[in-house]
Amino acid sequence: MSSDLFTGDLVPHLVDQRARLTPEATFAEYPVSPSSYSEGFRKISYRDFANAVNGAAQWLTQTLGPGKDLDTLAYMGPNDIRYPALILGAVKAGYKVLAHVFKGAYLVIFLFNAVPFGTVMIAPLSGALLSGRGLVEALQKTTIDAVLAVPSIVRDLAQDMELLHQCSEHLKTIMYCGGDLPRAIGDVVASKIRLLNQFGASELGLTPNILSLKNRDHTDWKYAQFHPDLGLELRLHDDGVYELYAVRDTKKHTIQPTFTIFPEAQEYASRDLFVRHPSKEKADLWSWHARADDIIVFLNGEKTNPISAEQYITSHNNDIAAVLVLGAQRFQAALFVEPTMDRDVVSPAARAAFIERIWPTVEAANRDAPTHARLMKTHVLFTQPGKPMLRAGKGTVQRSGTLNMYESEINALYRDADSLSIQSNDASRDSRTMLDEKAIKELVRQSILSTTGWTSLDQSADFFGLGMDSLQALAVVRRLRQGLCMPEFALSHVYTNSSVLALTATVVQLLKHRHNSRQSQDQTRIKERKDMIEHYKKAMNEQILPNAKAKSRSENTVVTLTGSTGTLGSHILEALLRHKTVGHIYCLNRADNGSSVQAQRNEKNGLQYPLNEGRVSFLKSDLSQPYLGVTKDQYQEVVSKTTLFIHNAWSVNFNLSLSSFTAQLNGLVKLLTTLNDSTKFTRFFYISSISSLMSSSLKAEKIPEQPITADETPGPNGYADSKYVAEQIIEYAAQKMSPSPSLAFARVGQIAGAVHHAGMWSKAEWFPSMIISSLQIGALPESLGSTFDCIDWVPVDMLAGVIVELANNMEPSREPGKRVQDSHAGVYHPLNPRKISWSTLKAVVLEELEDRTPIRIEVIPLPKWIAKVRQAIESMVDNESEVNDVSLEHALRRLPAIKLLDFYEELAANEDAPANQLETSETLKMSATMQRMEPVKDEWMRKWIREWFGSVNSSAI
């Protein structure tokens, strides 16, 4: 019988209709026993259910009288037929029933998802915990097609292949809800049974989803496709992350329960964050990412989503019941662990042993975490016996309530795990290289004596046997961390090496290991770069085939520019538009509405050259995709007309690893392969960075304008590695392609703010952040480190002109008649040829700062300046009566340097190292703008500083 007969009416009426028309049809099945499936299930027909509803209504009316204004009744009982019968009986009697929130979800499923469609619902046991084994037992007693399960049941199946096999023989679908599911667990189950994600929230209900079989496969189980008629919107919350909103629509009031709860609201922000499916063909699939409340904002402004690390650590350790990663308004993350009930971690030794046992999985989670969110052994806290983490009814940990409950213990953890204060540069170097066992032994001995007050100490005596307590042990750890410059030195080292001799031997081994570990990390980075370069060489061997056809030359220049909406890209576009020989420009960007985004960026950067002359085409593009992410017709148009590619698009993020730049490197190779498809002689110009060769291992007096293949040249981060790999790819393409196009790259140095336009040098960058923070702390660094003390900065608007000149004037990669192996990419160093020292410019900076404050700005060494910044932010936070996101944001505006402390510390650590010198003679010959360039002038510096402070309320600085 069609379910259409039973839609569009009230549920109590639908039950009566089914009882009249199909009285023997099954409404639901309930276990005969509340605690075991051994006795099977009892089928409840619609005749039985309707009679139960009417009986409940009659009993309520006789006992309480007819309801008035839907008076509220409360009921809590077993998970059986009485719940739905009482709910509908109360409605018929003029009452409403207040149910527990999870009983409410059960009732929604049993009534609204079942009655209109005739779906038979099967209830689990009411007096036993839900489990994967219980599900298998139920399958042996009745027929079940689909299961709506909490994540813990899915986890049970993933961990027991026999249970999973039995379920796969009987079940068609498992739909999970009530919490997130780790990818590793879901993949196991999804390989055997169709697994689906059902999103729901108290304020939204269980959202109706589209469960298409055509546009998804079994690996898409984490993704939901929201029904388009619900009035839901996903709005950009952060980079690649969207927040789910419900937007009121009066035409949809019957399917928008949110606005029954919030009758005055026009929209509701769920605080649930989602990410889009990476495939363009599946752009309407969304995966739950985190609660906005879960995102940790550290004291330096960096953010992290702790969910994946928490899931990984929990799912890989049977000794752990739950973990939380914490660190909001702190400098560093910490791990909060709830051991399983059979694990005793009361004693210090037991805690130390437990940490060692779980640490391999913590390290594995660290490898996938951003640098600023990695966990250390010094920052691990355990729950106390009898004080477990708080749980919601569905079993998930209540983060906020748990952290509030353990607030004092968390504060004590961070106090006792003091991170190392910035010491003088010489002291840091001495401690880093300190492997003198005699000196270490004396440091250990003095740390113990000064902490305990003892006057003497035998070097083989046990500290704790002599009376050292746990607080004194923590104090010793703090002293040794500072004395050894080892913030990772753990309390467990003292507990397990409780004599001067034993602790000294441990420290020596740790220092040696750290030294060897650094060398090992360097070798790992070198190998990763080499492997990636070989991977792309192989890809180009397959994609770039020799082409004997001659390429025609065009007098009219047609440019394809990537990354035109960034600061440098906007200025390059402006310079191209002013260049008379440029006929047309294709701008490839990731934005949907490239033209309007470009107009906004141009206005922000003070650029005024019109975009509406028909000389610019904006195309939405993904360079890593076939046809560069544009249509085939658009691709053919771009390739057939372009005579010059300027590749500027690249993620500037120094916290990312090399592997995180895979998409950009894939895009570079795709762009290079387009040169083979072109019928014209085409030039290719890539914007690289001096970071590709900033390692101090380079020994040449001046680094030449040519490709560098030395293994140890890049700076110490994934961004520098990616630029180095990109240069090697371009050099290989120059040797591989025949006939040879013109391939070149420019190693760009420090890009300063514009001087001929009103656009502001971004305050988020290291130098603006330093100057703004210097006013706040009343001090300016005496040095910028060897890297920046000699200033060869180029204003962004001048640099754009230089790049356009270089790209237009570049020579072929191989001269006619030369062999393929003699081909090389062109290399340029667009740096300011007229340098000026920081000591010279410092005077105008001091003058501008002191004009803005009544206090005198002192000039201090860079390490002391860093220490003052750290002390200032801690003082600002300590003085806040309540630290929250608003007060933290306020502090970061006044002291933006706090976000870049690692960068400044790197400058300070290499303050005495000789700076690399780059050759610029060939670049100078090719650029008239560079030939005319002046050193950074006082008026430029004044303009930049006045723009930074002019855009900020002076009282906030």
From TrEMBL:
Organism lineage: Eukaryota, Fungi, Dikarya, Ascomycota, Pezizomycotina
Alphabetized UniProt keyword annotations: Membrane, Phosphopantetheine, Phosphoprotein, Transmembrane, Transmembrane helix
Membrane spanning residue stretches: 105-130
Residue span(s) of domain Thioester reductase (TE): 561-802
Keyword Transmembrane helix (UniProt): yes
Highest rank taxon of the organism: Eukaryota
Keyword Transmembrane helix set for record: yes
Protein name according to UniProt: Carrier domain-containing protein
SUPFAM superfamilies reported for this sequence: Acetyl-CoA synthetase-like, ACP-like, NAD(P)-binding Rossmann-fold domains
Domain Carrier intervals: 443-506
